[in-house]
Specification:
79% helix, 78 residues
Length: 78
Amino acid sequence: MTDNSWRPLYELAVAETDPTKKGACFKAAEEAIHDRVAALGGQISRDDLLAMRDASSNLRSLKQDWKQSSVRDLRNHK
């Protein structure tokens, strides 16, 4: 049985536009994915594994972009 309980947190992190909330959203989504993988104890379907890998990869990219944007914003406000 597929449990996508991590997906709403992932979708919220992707859609969040408030830069002050993005970090917490990324963290919550990453933790939810990690918790789901841990709960499965190695018994994970290929489709679920691919979905969580893709989501994790996307979160890493978005988080990196967000951090770079935050640094640029700080430099522009000096």
